Amino acid sequence: MVTGTGVCDGIGVGRALVVSRPAPEIPTHRAGDPARELAALEDAFAAVITRTEALSREAGERLGEEAARIFEAHLALLRDEKGLLAPVRKRVSADGANAAHAVWLEMDDIAGQLRAADDAYLRARAADIEDLRDRVVLRLLGLKPPDFSRLPEDAVLIAADLAPSDAARLDTGKLAAIVTAQGGSTGHTAIMARLAGLPAVVGCAGILGLARDGDVVAVDGGTGDVCVNPDNATLRHFRDRQDALLRERELLARYRDLPAVTADGTALTLLANIGGPRDIEQARHHGAEGVGLVRSEFLYMERPAPPGEEEQYNAYRAILEGMAGRPVTVRTLDAGGDKNVPSLGLPPEANPYLGCRAIRLCLREPALFKTQLRALLRAGAHGPLRVMFPMISSVEELAQAKDLLEEARRELEERAIPCAAALPVGVMVELPAAALLARELAAAADFFSIGTNDLIQYTVAADRGNSRVAELYSPYHPAVLRLVAGVISAAREAGIGCGMCGEAAAEPALVPLFVGMGLRELSVSPTYLPGLRRRLRALRVADCAALAREILPLGSESEIREALRQGAQTSIGGQSS
Amino acid sequence: MITQTVTVLLGQGLHARPAARFAALAGSFEAELTLAYGGRMCDPKSIVKLLTLAVGRGATVELRADGPDEEEALRALCEFVQNPTE
Hints:
The complex is a heterodimer. In chain A, 48% of the residues lie in helices and 13% in strands. By secondary structure, chain A is α/β, with parallel strands linked by helices. Residues 573-577 of chain A have low confidence and may be disordered. In chain A, the strands form two sheets. Chain A has an eight-stranded mixed sheet. An eight-stranded parallel barrel of chain A has the order 9-10-11-12-13-14-15-16, surrounded by six helices. Chain A has helices spanning 34-63, 65-78, 81-93, 99-115, 120-140, 164-169, 188-196, 207-210, 232-255, 279-285, 309-322, 358-364, 366-379, 395-414, 432-436, 438-444, 452-460, 478-494, 511-517, 529-537, 541-551, 557-569, and strands at residues 2-3, 5-8, 11-19, 155-159, 175-180, 200-202, 216-220, 225-228, 269-274, 291-295, 328-331, 385-389, 425-429, 447-450, 497-500, 521-524. The radius of gyration of chain A is 29 Å and the shape is globular. By secondary structure, chain B is α+β, with helices and mostly antiparallel strands. In chain B, strand 2 and strand 3 (40-42) form a beta hairpin. At the A-B interface, helix 2, helix 3, helix 4, helix 5 and helix 11 of A face helix 1 and helix 2 of B.
């Protein structure tokens, strides 16, 4: 068993097909007739350009637009007068190199510069240059590239690496999986594999020494595990994983577009939690009706200084546009404490969970906070945006935050910058203090969202990351459930919306209970959405309410778990529809 | 000749596909263009030169344009790099 970088989820089991691409021998003699070499260069480039245009069309038809665009970049390179063609010609006319040698030297040089880049994405682009280099050189030498058009059924392709033009020509329908020794998640093998939905592992250093033609190979494109000639137990493990993945995909296909309406006709709203614009695709793919939580910290990570207003505005706007008219709720900066964000330069604290983080930090750093608020107000002009403050502990704190939001709006007005007239403002209820003051907070907020993760931690005073107390962290704790019920109830009385964005919302056994308490909005990680949709459609609100009435008076977790188990065996969660 | 300093907000910096489109956009203008970054300069009409300059996300670059359509060129190129969804 060896491991590499899994770049496309899925399990593939088949027989190894090991391919190698022999490097052509480059003639190094001086050109006898430079004019002839230059003419040969022109022909070769023209031919490769034509072939690349064809590859682009084919890849586009088979794998979609993104695959075609890879070749657009190749075409731009092949037509680059100043950066490529002129220097190559110069090597022929000034240095006397023959055409193939000139191309080899120049393009190898460029590839070398890219390979030396700090950035992984750029290093992966060196492969593009090398692919083009090889193709032009092969053309000049009158040689043909390897043939990938006839592959045996259920082959697992094994190679040192695949050039982009090879990856595009693969008959992915016949392949079970691909494993390459080199390459990373931004390389072409990874991109093509994902577009074709083909399980793939790259950067698997040990594979070439391990697999020989005909060996049975099992590949897990999700974990990056590759097993050559697996024993029966291992093989069964891979097959089980394969079945589980297929079931997940079926679930997705069946339930994604069905409305989240209970069996007795109550509609719920299902949203996604996301950490940046790239999660939007996932959210939409899994049928999210909006975004219940944008963890805005992503904008502040991995950079030397915090993002400015313009950059934040563009990012929030991109999320709104990506969700195309569906509601988006952004949680303001929730950094500090255990969520370390170096760009903020915060001092270390002895007790980070109870320290200066989230809204406390923002209220202490109004300039930083208002930059985010201005960006949100501006983005709010482009779609249904809501703002949510994390870790609110009092009515005064909420009032202060709202004052700063109003200041930010006035600042924009003075600068005559278009922005939303008003943004709905919510409280992320995650402290026991907020849960107990739910009634007062509901009078001053437009909505609640219950952050069960931190609510549980603060209520039972246990760090879920500390193995010595982690078992105390439980969403089934009666104290937690009563707090949640109180929050939902206070929201309903005040006539404001109440959602839940913590992990408990995705816990199948608890969903009927929360629905029974009156919860009508859940925001979870996108992959949970189809399963949640199916669960909700099987519920009857009346039964859920009865369940809640039965469970809330219980004073111990074991009683609660038992009651939920029994509830699951009777009317709750009976048949799926 | 006019100059403008701008921060690159493209999701992956000026890499591969956006670089190709940026180079194509630059090539559509008559003006002579220069992109300066990290003490080095390049002609943004050449995709090879752009790639090897390795301009990442968050980088601040200086764009220079000299020619009849210099204002239009600068405006278009600055707008391009400031759009994080390109």
